[in-house]
């Protein structure tokens, strides 16, 4: 038996190809949206991987340091380092801000890393060019996505930092490139005010009789010094010994230090389940809308093609063609349309992904799921046309 | 199965019920022998189309009996179950317009019927080519319907009606769109094929040019038929 669907498609190939391309662009957008979501999850995982930590010690009852602000004293790490099972502990600060680069500025996550070296928690694990930070001030390691190159000067608040090293795929969960600077500089950057603001705060403090006591001359200086310095960090990153489990190390820190401790799985849950949950729901809604639009397009085209063939279908039924043969012809045409659309969509998504400002991760599972969804949508979309075709009276061929 | 042609006895068809009931056919009798070509003539609204649809197993009659060769098709409310297979295997249709499938070439338009009946593609195409050759359109075998002239399309449609060697062919105004020369050629082809394949042919027509060619004519008016002898001339 010849393929009626195949012959019809060959006969009206232009209509199929051009509609398939239109549908393909829609499917391409759908696959890209799924890729954006995957990219956000992957960015979150990369952030955790690159931190090199097994535990995140943060302010009590907060979801810090990524999903909520968290503030812990910067001398806390010493006590944590002495806890059983802790191999390394390091202070870290995170601040998402605009960083000046030449005449322009870029959105970046500025990471303050404590003195140490490569291999310390929080430090960039690999560089693609240059070297790690070796000085205590005004050096930076930047991600390539920031647009910075070796030797460039970055402007963070009032200070300037020379780029001495470059990383690749060191990004925040929002996809912003990371810029690593020394911890002290980062702590200062978090609370640094302009000169006028500092002067006004000093005058207010001087005018406060509780701080400016003639009998205690050093009190005012001590208060002002505490106001203009920052002795807090966002979290302490902890690396544990191999013979300990995360819970074995985390529980004593929670109990004795009165802090919240997250292990890797919990932190991934916070990033994926809370930080990007709203974005995921938005993308999910877009996917549903795009699926409905795709289904409507396929249904409309298949319905139109079927209506164009009503007389031929009547003749086919009159000469004894079974209903299932006619239904199969319509379904096959819908599937071919879906196949053309999917191939075009996949090619579009593959070539468009690198052009997106956010990281787009196209995974084989999404491709397979998308293909299955497209086929299912095409089969469902052909139902209306099949109902019309099966209702055609063979007597219509006679008149 | 011996060839006995088509026979209907006291066939009636009613549309609607109660006060709105309308009898389109009233006790129609008709018999067409194998190899015979008869005309069915009547004005608009006389019941021609209804009779053709009953003969073509497209609609069920209200009462009466119809046999095709030695097979009972309808008998007072009973009918064969698979009318689709009956139409495919035992009834050939030729329409006023050829109604060829636009996405199949001439050969496959003809070969489609045997293919639907389960005949292998090669064998179905061989049969189709045989008929196209007999109808003198073999040189257009690979042409699509849109590339064929009106006369060629009609010959391909006739080949499609004949390809399963049905015991009966129903031709609905087959010459209406053709000039007199081509109309006579179509009638000649139907006569020749009826003789060759021992097929009963019923031609519904208004065409004055071809009416004299029938040896037997059924007139139908208000759902009632009466038979008369035709002139049977002009076919050489």
From TrEMBL, chain A:
Chief subcellular location equals membrane
Q: Which domain of life is it from?
A: Bacteria
Residues forming the ABC3 transporter permease C-terminal domain are 285-394
The record's listing under InterPro entries reads: ABC-4/HrtB_transporter, ABC3_permease_C, MacB_PCD
Task: Give the way it sits in the membrane.
Answer: Multi-pass membrane protein
Extract the Pfam families matched here.
FtsX (PF02687), MacB_PCD (PF12704)
This chain belongs to the protein called ABC transporter permease
Q: Which organism is it from?
A: Diaphorobacter limosus
């Amino acid at each position: 038996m010849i393929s009626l669907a195949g012959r019809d498609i060959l006969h009206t190939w232009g209509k199929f190809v051009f509609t398939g391309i239109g549908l393909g662009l829609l499917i391409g957008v759908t696959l890209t949206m799924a890729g954006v979501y995957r990219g956000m999850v992957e960015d979150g995982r990369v952030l955790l991987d690159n931190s090199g930590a097994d535990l995140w010690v943060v302010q009590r009852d907060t979801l810090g340091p990524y999903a909520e602000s968290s503030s812990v004293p910067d001398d806390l790490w010493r006590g944590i380092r002495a806890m059983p099972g802790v191999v390394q502990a390091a202070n870290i600060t995170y601040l998402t801000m605009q960083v000046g680069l030449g005449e322009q500025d870029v959105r970046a996550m500025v990471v303050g890393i404590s003195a140490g070296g490569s291999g310390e928690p929080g430090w960039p694990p690999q560089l693609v060019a240059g070297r790690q930070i070796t000085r205590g001030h005004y050096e930076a390691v930047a991600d390539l996505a920031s647009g910075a190159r070796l030797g460039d000067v970055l402007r963070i608040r009032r200070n300037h930092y020379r780029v001495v090293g470059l990383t690749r795929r060191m990004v925040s969960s929002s996809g912003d490139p990371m810029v690593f600077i020394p911890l002290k500089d980062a702590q200062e950057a978090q609370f640094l005010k302009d000169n006028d603001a500092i002067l006004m705060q000093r005058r207010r403090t001087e005018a406060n009789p509780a701080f400016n006591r003639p009998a205690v001359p050093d009190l005012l200086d001590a208060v002002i010094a505490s106001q203009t310095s920052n002795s807090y960090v966002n979290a302490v990153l902890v690396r544990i010994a191999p013979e300990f489990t995360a819970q074995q190390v985390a529980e004593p820190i929670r109990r004795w230090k009165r802090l919240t401790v997250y292990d890797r799985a919990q932190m991934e849950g916070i990033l994926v389940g809370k930080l990007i949950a709203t974005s995921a729901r938005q993308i999910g809604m877009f996917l549903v809308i795009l699926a409905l639009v795709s289904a409507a397009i396929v249904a409309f085209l298949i319905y139109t093609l079927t209506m164009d063939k009503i007389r031929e279908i009547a003749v086919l039924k009159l000469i004894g063609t079974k209903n299932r043969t006619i239904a199969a012809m319509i379904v096959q045409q819908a599937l071919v349309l879906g196949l053309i659309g999917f191939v075009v969509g996949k090619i579009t998504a593959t070539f468009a992904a690198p052009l997106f400002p956010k990281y787009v991760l196209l995974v084989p599972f999404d491709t397979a799921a998308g293909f299955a969804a497209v086929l299912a949508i095409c089969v469902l979309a052909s139902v209306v046309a099949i109902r019309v075709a099966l209702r055609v009276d063979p007597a219509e061929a006679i008149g | 199965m011996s060839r006995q042609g088509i026979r209907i006895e006291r066939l009636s068809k009613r549309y609607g019920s109660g006060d709105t009931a309308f009898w389109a056919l009233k006790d129609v009798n008709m018999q067409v022998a194998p190899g015979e070509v008869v005309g069915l003539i009547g004005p608009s609204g006389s019941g021609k189309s209804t009779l053709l649809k009953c003969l073509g197993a497209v609609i069920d009659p209200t009462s009466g009996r119809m046999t095709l060769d030695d097979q009972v098709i309808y008998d007072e409310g009973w009918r064969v179950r698979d009318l689709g297979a009956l139409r495919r295997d035992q009834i050939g249709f030729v329409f006023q317009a050829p109604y060829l499938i636009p996405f199949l070439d001439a050969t496959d338009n003809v070969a489609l019927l045997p293919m639907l009946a389960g005949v292998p593609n090669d064998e179905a195409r061989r049969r189709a080519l045989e008929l196209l050759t007999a109808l003198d359109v073999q040189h257009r075998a690979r042409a699509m319907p849109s590339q064929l002239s009106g006369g060629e399309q009609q010959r391909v449609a006739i080949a499609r009606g004949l390809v399963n060697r049905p015991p009966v062919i129903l031709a609905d105004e087959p010459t209406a769109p053709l000039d007199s020369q081509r109309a006579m050629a179509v009638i000649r082809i139907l006569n020749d094929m009826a003789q060759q394949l021992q097929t009963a042919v019923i031609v519904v027509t208004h065409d004055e040019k071809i009416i004299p060619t029938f040896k037997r004519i059924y007139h139908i008016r208000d759902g009632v038929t009466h038979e008369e002898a035709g002139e049977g001339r002009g076919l050489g």
